[in-house]
Amino acid sequence: MSGIVDLDVRFPRGRATLEQMRRASGLSAEEIREITLCEEIPVLGPDETAWEITRDAAAAVLERTGVDRAAIRQVLYVGSGVWDRPAWSPAAKIAHELGIEHAHCFEIVNFCNAGMTALQIASERTRLDGGYALVLLGDRLGRLVDYHDADTRPLFNVGDAGGAMLVGPHGCTYRHLHAAMHTDASWADFWAGEQGPDGAKFRRKSDRKGLSTVYMENFTTLAQQTLDAIGGKRGDIAYVLTNQGDRNIQSRFLDVLGLTEEQSVFTYGRLGHMASSDTVICLKELAGRGVLRDGDLILVASSGMGFSFGVTALEYCAEGSR
């Protein structure tokens, strides 16, 4: 059975501070802090690129695992589709930089749900062909947030990070058991980018209410579908991780599943929402606690604009983590 062999993450040097957001937006510090839950967010600086920090995360994974580059048959770069250059393949660029010469390199766009989408695809492919896949999570959403537009305040917690997962059929730290995903396409136009003099920026296109309810309904339904698919029940869940977009939704989801906050990871007060890299960050922090036991069932709830939702079941394998 395939899964995550190893993973890592890198952060940019740049920071967007609450004070910068306050001055640009005209909102009060309290109004902004309700969203960010911290005083600064990691964002790409003017001389930084998403592909380079993502490459560095991938290089660390490959160095630790010692995997033969020739055994890597897919390189998947995921995110929003707004890459560091237009009409360009960051997957191919990073593969070349890392000496990966025999892989199919391509991109996947599913916004902050893209990491788990790519993990599902990579797990299925490596299960069939026996090789490895490198999943690269390298978005630059922080550049798309316009702090001068107070109407985009719900996105003021969005920042940048570069993540990497090596996926393969052997030596897995997290076995990929199942993933259930769904898109509520009626929300497709809630957020959209607009091209301006400083590049593309997010704009809210609708005042429609009820998105948090849609989140809860999808997470709950997909969690049950995933448990049913693996023959599990709620009492089998050891931990639940989510994108770090909304702390209230995460807490409510834990309550629905009958879990405590100690059975999850919260990075809101330190990092904000690092796009699809959130899931890699949370898995890395959970492992760093030293609490995982062989066979622990971890559900990862992810979501992205569109709006797409997913719940992925992972099984921790102590032997693979050594």
UniProtKB/TrEMBL annotation:
The keyword Nucleus does not apply. The keyword Zinc does not apply. Residues 106-184 form the Beta-ketoacyl-[acyl-carrier-protein] synthase III N-terminal domain. CDD domains: init_cond_enzymes. It holds the Pfam family ACP_syn_III. It comes from the Bacteria. One of its GO terms (biological process) is secondary metabolite biosynthetic process. One of its GO terms (molecular function) is 3-oxoacyl-[acyl-carrier-protein] synthase activity. Keywords: Acyltransferase, Cytoplasm, Transferase. Residues 228-316 form the Beta-ketoacyl-[acyl-carrier-protein] synthase III C-terminal domain. SUPFAM superfamilies: Thiolase-like. InterPro entries: ACP_syn_III_C (IPR013747), ACP_syn_III_N (IPR013751), Thiolase-like (IPR016039). This is 3-oxoacyl-ACP synthase.
